[in-house]
Amino acid sequence: MKKIRTRFAPSPTGYMHIGNLRTALYAYLIAKKDDGDFILRIEDTDQGRLVEGATDIIYDTLKACNLSHDEGPDVGGNYGPYVQSERMKLGLYSEYAHKLIELKKAHYCFCKAEDVEAQRQAAGNSFYFVDPCNKLTQDEIDNKLKNNEEYAIRLNVDPVGTTSFNDEIYGTITVENKTLDEMVLLKSDGFPTYNFANVIDDHLMDITDVVRGNEYLSSTPKYNLIYEAFNWDIPRYIHCPPVMKDEHNKLSKRNGDASFQDLVSKGYLPEAILNYIALLGWSPNEDREIYSIEELAKAFDVKRIGTTGAIFDIDKLTWMNGVYLRNMDIDKYYELVKPYIYDVVDNHLDYKLIANAIHDRINILSEIKDMISFLNKTEDYDVDLYNNKKAKTNPELAKELLPKILESLESLDTFNNDEIFNCLASKAQELEIKNITLMYPLQVALSSRSVAPGGATAIAEILGKDETLNRIKEAINKLK
Length: 480
Fold this sequence. Notes:
Layout: E1 5-8, H1 18-33, E2 37-40, H2 54-64, H3 84-89, H4 92-102, E3 106-109, H5 113-123, H6 138-146, E4 152-155, E5 162-167, E6 171-176, E7 184-186, H7 194-204, E8 209-213, H8 220-230, E9 236-240, E10 243-244, H9 260-265, H10 270-278, H11 293-299, E11 310-311, H12 314-327, H13 330-342, H14 351-358, H15 368-372, H16 395-410, H17 417-431, H18 435-447, H19 456-463, H20 465-479
Parallel strand pairs: 1-2, 8-9, 10-11
Antiparallel strand pairs: 3-4, 4-7, 5-6
């Protein structure tokens, strides 16, 4: 069996779009499931759309997601160069475009941009270019070439009959040849079009499986005409449904939708993002949702990719990100959250205690700032906050209980979570009330909030005895 070789071929035009990242992931999983090779190729022939630094973003994103490519511009390989502009300097695309002319499968086109636009205006919405240059005699062509007239090279398409191809997701697709335009292969500036270059590169790089978005389904018959003209093997096609913003609109960086970099900056973990987007359009053959990249490679099956777009649900991603944070090795978790704590809290407090207190509460790292901002100083709040039906408390009861809490905590020599809890549990028993009835007013006094990370006793340990007692006294005065 031929070794599986897939490729991810992004254009360096900005941040990594979620749909592009999912394409990279699926290409990686298809290769690694069968011990194949995953190749990175940079497609930069559209010079007008290039963004400085975007290639580094591609490298950094793949690294952050542990999608290690076996070949590429930065790691080398036997099929390089892996950047299309460098391949163009070798004359590859011009050579193969002219070979198609020799094979009578392509032709010179001397039309100007205004000629194409005139046809477009006349045709309206259903436009595809009918090239009059296809009817030029050889003498006319030779004369134009001799006079150094600018030309493009276009594919020949026989309008009679149909063209069929098979896709692993959408099955066999057949189109009428008369609906296929004679697409440009080589532009007048010598640059290949995206459509032509990726066919040449996929063949020369021995790509066996082409993974891309289903927007390329309509172009695939024309790709196959090129493969067939050269008598090359046609790769296996996997056209993936789009990632949707809602039922009617695709997720798109052009519309300002979140990129991978945007999500990371908001506090989502790369591994959680990758796990989530794997499930956008693909359903595993078991009842689970959390997968490592290695587990995904074993479980992935292209037959379980759907045909309809999957809606990107930020709430589901947020939930999944929280699962990853809670399942993380505790030392790795602490190193991850420490910079976020440092940005908010004075360094005289114990960061590890704070990290432990928020561990079960945070879903994304950007939540940390607001969650712990009260630790620096008491925030303003209304005494109505002491009203809590579950705890059966109100401002009047809090006014009565806080002095007793203050007296109990003042007597403690060891001020840690366990000692504080045991002390207050004993006081609650003595007062014949539930623990929560006593703890809730303390939590409000210390955090100025109805919900706070860790609860009252954990917050007291973080703040330390002196600050805890001071905040209780401030609360008592506020209630007066």
